[in-house]
Specification:
Blueprint lengths: L28 H14 L5 E7 L5 H14 L3 E6 L10 H7 L7 H8 L10 H10 L2 E6 L8 H10 L7 E8 L7 H5 L7 E5 L5 H12 L5 H11 L3 H13 L9 H21 L3 H13 L5 H7 L7 H10 L3 E4 L2 E4 L2 H10 L2 H17 L4 H8 L8 H16 L3 H11 L6 H18 L1 H12 L6 H17 L2 H12 L4 H16 L22 H14 L3 H13 L6 H13 L3 H18 L2 H17 L3 H14 L10 H14 L3 H9 L12 H14 L3 H17 L10 H11 L3 H18 L2 H15 L20 H18 L2 H12 L9 H14 L18 H11 L4 H8 L3 H15 L4 H6 L13
Parallel strand pairs: 1-4, 1-5, 2-3, 3-4
Antiparallel strand pairs: 6-7
Helix pairs in contact: 1-2, 8-9, 8-10, 9-11, 10-11, 11-15, 12-13, 12-14, 12-15, 12-16, 16-17, 17-18, 18-19, 19-20, 20-21, 20-22, 21-22, 22-23, 22-24, 22-29, 23-24, 24-25, 25-26, 25-27, 26-27, 27-28, 27-29, 28-29, 29-30, 29-31, 30-31, 31-32, 31-33, 32-33, 33-34, 34-35, 35-36, 35-37, 36-37, 37-38, ...
Length: 937
């Protein structure tokens, strides 16, 4: 037979064990030394009884054959006995094998043993002992586990008669784990001084490497030897066969051939298992199939019951399975040793019988109070049970799989639960839960399932709630278009509270679509200006907040939606929480949001939970709680990994991740997140504006002001298409104004900042006005005095603490650069009152540097840069001033909290505006002492 090639699958083609040649007896030196002593002792008239045990293929029989050859070389007579499963029921078969070589001496005894009648006494035993006194004899018994029962008393009698002066050694080889040999040998009570017990161990990787070199003719890689040892479990027989086929196929024993080696060894083990199965009794086969199905769930008596055996000798069955190498004992349990063996046993079981076994095993496991997931794993392979406990176990397993994040397994459990007969509404609720898990495991399948549920024409409160929850989940996924059309379809037949909720969800989808419109699709009522339904109140609250209109009314409507609790859908409550937060009721809004997150965790509603957690993370970022934001966004991705988010929703997740990275000094990570190609269709949602804004922030931090300006404007255009004019949603105008000023367009900068101030005043939230005034002051260089018209608002209560703190830090840097340490110290004092960002954040590091600079004594310096030919931006003035004082680019970057590349770009722009070409010229420039660099605007 030729060896397999790369094109031939190994499994199922190998007929292992056909080669009779014994494998090399590697790592058997200790055993061989003891066996040599036994053979040598025969010449001195000393008998011995030696048992050699080991797992199948470990070479215990090979050791017996080696000893027999050694004995023959030393003129010792060798009598051989070999047990076999096929001849186990042949009465006195082993004794007949033993006596046959004695010839005429044992002829009469052999006729008696082969006769039909039970012989009297122990025929042949006296003759054997008589001849042995003259001729030292070695008796080898291979595969003693398969000896016939009638021969065992004869062999026991032989052992009892051994004494000094009878030069006979009995070597018994058997498969098993008992270190004291077979039971019948222990029952013979041989003298301890005559008895030795040897246990054959698996080969080590070093021995496997030596064997590989012997067979393949070349040294092998360490990885190859390790893999060969693990795959074969150190079995010399399996390795010998596998390596011969491997060598015949021309494969070198290298690491890149490990996959072929694994496949080959698996095929050999599978073939050996298949042949061993064919030799088992019907009872043993039935029990082995039961063990393969039940795994570790049921003890051996229950597995016998599962196999349909009512009266059986359990001890004999266990011994037979252990002797065949299939199982190992574990108290009242039997464990199948190898996964390959279990798989082969299941493959050899007819499909109908296998399914029935799984069903009966699930019932026994349920009665034995096994864990839900253990029962569910059996039910997955069983036909419908038709019992309530089956659905209960599958649903419990679904929840357990979700909690550990195994969404694929969770969907498998619920799909199986749907096969069970049950009430239509109960089945629909299972489908809804399944769609939530499919949102991660198979999003498109989950979306279709949700659409079908929305279109289900069931009547009653239960069905109404189901359709609303399904539509709510569609919107949580971010598919606004599907949500609008599904809501329109469902509204055609909806009544009462269901209709109110569907209207709210329609307008929730419409408000985040590609372009907001107050004109609904046919059949959809307009959203009331003064809605009574909590869900509609939540949507209207968000509309008012996003547009920056009627803050008091927005807060009232948001509270109505949030106080309704789970009587209102999730998405209206989410937008209501954000609307309430924008009114400056931040603590109240975040408390409601935390309660909603807890509710969604209990529901296992992963798409809606993920959206709630991302909103939580956004509010934490705005409040400067970066550690909490990191935890929330990590939980969101655990509930729904980024790859499973709908294209219209994924920008929100990426933006929050990027802002956290940016503020925690991981700029490269932030840039990579924002530069990641977005899924097709991403640009058609309002959340695209968030991504544009984040990219603009990164560009501004890196000194790419022209690019930043265009991105800020494009972000604003997307927001205005939705009529989201409130500057507290995203302060794109003030950021664009900063870019304009840097680029030398102060008029447009003033227009943008005036517009932001006007809109902030119209909204009326103190935080919005404070932020707009502070931003205006930082841009027109009037510093803190520019905020004189702002509403008083304790810094610790500011919802937008991070943005407020960043502008304060910018102002403080400006004052330090100008040399006004008193104003800078006042700004830093105000900044310290804000509880924002962890100690290792970018802002905290910047504050530490500013504090260190303030601690240095002020040194008057009249050297500066003239203002002719250019107007420098605040950032360029700060950079130029530090460079003029002799700081290197790296030191300037550390002082300002920007990258070295940003410093280089700012200096290049400064040189161009001042008409100079180098830092040397910058240092040489002087101006009249009565003017300061910071006056250059």
């Amino acid at each position: 037979m030729t060896g397999p090639t790369d094109e031939q699958p190994y499994a199922g083609l190998i007929r292992a064990g056909r080669r009779r040649a014994d494998p090399s007896l590697l790592e058997r030196e200790r055993e061989k030394a003891q066996l040599r002593q036994v053979v040598a002792a025969l010449g001195e008239g000393r008998p011995a009884v030696v048992s050699v045990t080991g797992r199948p293929g470990f070479g215990h029989n090979a050791l017996l054959r080696w000893t027999a050859r050694l004995a023959e070389e030393r003129s010792v007579r060798v009598l051989r006995v070999s047990g076999s499963l096929a001849e186990r029921d042949l009465r006195h078969g082993a004794v007949v094998q033993l006596l046959t070589p004695l010839g005429e001496v044992a002829e009469r005894s052999l006729r008696v043993l082969r006769g039909q009648r039970e012989p009297d006494g122990l025929p042949g035993l006296p003759e054997l002992l008589h001849t042995t006194r003259r001729t030292p004899t070695l008796v080898t018994v291979e595969d003693a586990q398969w000896l016939d029962a009638a021969s065992l008393p004869w062999l026991q009698a032989l052992v009892r008669r051994l004494s000094t002066g009878i030069p006979l050694a009995l070597l018994i080889g058997r498969t098993g784990l008992d270190p004291h040999g077979p039971e019948w040998l222990a029952d013979a009570a041989p003298s301890a001084r005559l008895t030795r017990h040897l246990t054959v161990r698996p080969l080590s990787p070093r021995a496997v490497a030596d064997l590989t070199e012997q067979i393949c003719g070349t040294p092998c890689d360490e990885e190859f030897a390790t893999t060969a040892t693990e795959a074969s479990h150190g079995s010399p027989a399996i390795l010998h066969t596998a390596l011969h086929y491997f060598a015949e196929a021309g494969h070198p024993p290298t690491a890149d051939r490990v996959p072929q080696l694994r496949a080959l060894v698996t095929g050999i083990i599978g073939d050996r298992v298949g042949r061993a199965l064919r030799g088992l009794s019907d009872e043993a086969t039935a029990v082995l199939r039961a063990l393969a199905v039940s795994g570790d769930l049921l003890d051996f008596p229950l597995n016998c019951s599962l196999a349909g055996l009512r009266t059986v000798r359990e001890s004999r069955l266990r011994a037979a399975l252990q002797a065949a190498g299939f199982t190992t004992p574990d108290g009242s349990y039997e464990r199948i040793r190898l996964a390959v063996a279990r798989q082969r046993i299941l493959e050899d079981t007819p499909a109908a019988e296998r399914a029935a076994l799984h069903a009966r095993a699930a019932h026994l496991a349920y009665r034995a109070v096994a864990a839900d997931e253990d029962i569910a794993r059996l039910l997955l392979q069983a036909p419908p049970i038709g019992e309530p406990w089956a659905v209960h176990a599958l649903c419990g397993s679904f929840g357990a799989a979700l909690r550990r994040g195994d969404f694929v397994r969770a969907t498998t459990y619920l799909n199986r639960a749907l096969d069970e007969p049950q009430d239509p509404l109960q089945r629909a609720h299972l489908s809804l839960d399944l769609a939530g898990a499919e949102a991660v495991a198979a999003p498109e399948v989950g979306d279709r399932r949700l659409t079908n549920l929305i279109h289900t024409p069931g009547k009653g409160e239960g069905w109404s709630q189901l359709r609303v929850r399904a539509l709510d989940m569609v919107l949580a996924r971010g598919d606004d278009s599907r949500g609008r059309h599904a809501a329109t379809h469902a509204l055609a037949t909806a009544h009462g509270s269901e209709r109110d909720d569907l209207i709210a969800l329609y307008w929730c989808a419409a408000d985040t679509g590609p372009e907001s419109t107050d004109v609904p699709l046919p059949g959809v009522p307009a959203l009331s200006e003064h809605p009574l339904a909590p869900a509609q109140a939540g949507i209207r609250a968000w509309q008012l907040a996003a547009r920056g209109q009627d803050r008091a009314r927005a807060a009232e409507l948001a509270r109505r939606a949030l106080e309704a609790g789970d009587a209102a859908p999730v998405m209206p409550r989410l937008v209501a929480a954000k609307a309430l937060w924008l009114t400056d009721a931040a603590t109240e809004a975040e408390d409601h949001l935390a309660a909603l997150v807890a509710e969604l965790r209990r529901r296992h509603s992963d798409p809606t939970l993920a959206r709630a957690l991302v909103l939580t993370a956004e509010l934490h970022v705005r409040g400067g709680r970066l550690d909490a934001a990191e935890r929330a966004v990590t939980d969101a991705e655990r509930a729904q990994p980024a790859a499973a988010w709908h294209p219209l929703a994924v920008p929100h997740l990426m933006v929050i991740r990027a802002f956290i990275a940016l503020e925690t000094r991981r700029s490269d990570e932030a840039r990579a997140l924002l530069d990641t190609p977005m899924p097709p269709g991403t640009v058609y949602g309002v959340r695209w504006s968030y991504l544009l804004y984040a990219r603009a922030r990164v560009a501004a931090d890196e000194g790419r002001w022209a690019e930043a300006f265009e991105l800020f404007k494009e972000s604003g255009r997307w927001l205005l298409r939705q009529q989201w004019a409130n500057p507290i949603v995203l302060p794109w105008r003030s950021m664009a104004a900063r870019a304009c000023l840097t680029l030398g367009d102060p008029e447009q900068a003033q227009r943008l900042i005036r517009e932001e101030l006007t809109l902030a005043r119209r909204w009326g939230a103190p935080s919005a006005m404070d932020l707009a005034h502070l931003a205006a002051g930082s841009l027109d260089h009037r510093g803190p005095s520019a905020r004189s018209g702002a509403s008083p608002h304790p810094p610790r209560e500011l919802p937008t603490r991070l943005a407020y703190a960043e502008i304060l830090a910018e102002l403080a840097t400006e004052e330090v650069t100008k040399g006004d340490h008193i104003t800078a110290a006042r700004l830093l004092t105000e900044l310290s009152r804000l509880t924002v960002t962890p100690a290792d954040s970018r802002l905290a590091e910047r504050v530490r540097r500013l504090t260190a600079r303030l601690a240095q004594p002020a040194t008057p310096d009249d050297t500066t840069v003239p203002e002719e030919r250019a107007t420098l931006s605040p950032a360029e003035r700060q950079t130029a001033e530090l460079a003029r004082r002799g700081l290197r680019n790296r030191e300037i970057a550390e002082q300002l909290g920007v990258s070295r590349r940003t410093v280089e770009l700012r200096l290049s722009s400064t040189y161009k505006k001042l008409g100079i070409t180098s830092r040397k010229e910058l240092l040489a420039r002087r101006r009249p002492t009565e003017r300061k660099l910071t006056d250059v605007v």
